[in-house]
Amino acid sequence: MSVQDVKKDTEPKMASVVEDFKRKLSNVRTGRASVGLLDTVSVDYYGTPTPLTQMASVAVPEPQLITVQPWDTSQLGAVEKAIIGANLGLNPSNDGKVIRLPVPPLNEERRKQLAKQVHEIAEEHRIAIRNSRHAANDSLKKLAKDKLISEDDERGGLDDVQKLTNTFIGKIDELAKGKEAEIMTV
């Protein structure tokens, strides 16, 4: 194993943390309707917890409205119950075929709560990136201790891993700032 191997192992791990952060951000509600809001909703489908997106078509026909049309209309009540149970702050109404979810505008207090939530999610992902850095640094130190790489290579590798860490933490900060700005925009 070499310094290059450690860097090759670390970069995809950090990139996957950023991708996970993007997914989590899509679930945070802004003032606009988004199908991503319902990604976490799981419906009890004949005794099996099933993701809503696997049993219904979800659409956003208007900026303030989400429609959910279950493929099996007998599951309308179960879908409605799951959406209420997901505690998204959305009140479903159905017409027998389609569930409509009007997305209410956010008040100032709720905007601040959501911005705080984004900040907490970002911090969790920064910690995950730092943990990847820590693992990479440990690998480099072990290689140096076992005399598989020189001290100069170790120092260079540690610097490279730190640069990688700074890059990915910068991406998370940028995404978090963008989401907070989106939430705070009235």
Give the secondary structure arrangement, pairings included:
Layout: H1 3-27, E1 42-45, E2 48-51, E3 56-62, E4 65-70, H2 76-85, E5 93-94, E6 99-102, H3 108-145, H4 151-184
Antiparallel strand pairs: 1-2, 3-4, 4-6, 5-6
What do you see in this structure?
With 186 residues, the protein is an alpha+beta fold. It is elongated, with a radius of gyration of 22 Å. The N and C termini lie far apart (53 Å). 25% of the residues are buried. The mean pLDDT is 88.
Task: Write a brief caption for the model.
This protein has 186 residues and is of the alpha+beta class.
Structural class: alpha+beta
**Total of DSSP H or I helical runs spanning 4+ residues:** 4
The portion of residues forming beta strands comes to: 5-15%
The share of residues in helices is: 55-70%
Radius of gyration computed on alpha carbons: 22 Å
In terms of quaternary structure, what is this? single chain
List keywords for this structure.
4-stranded antiparallel sheet, 15% strand, 4 helices, alpha+beta, 186 residues
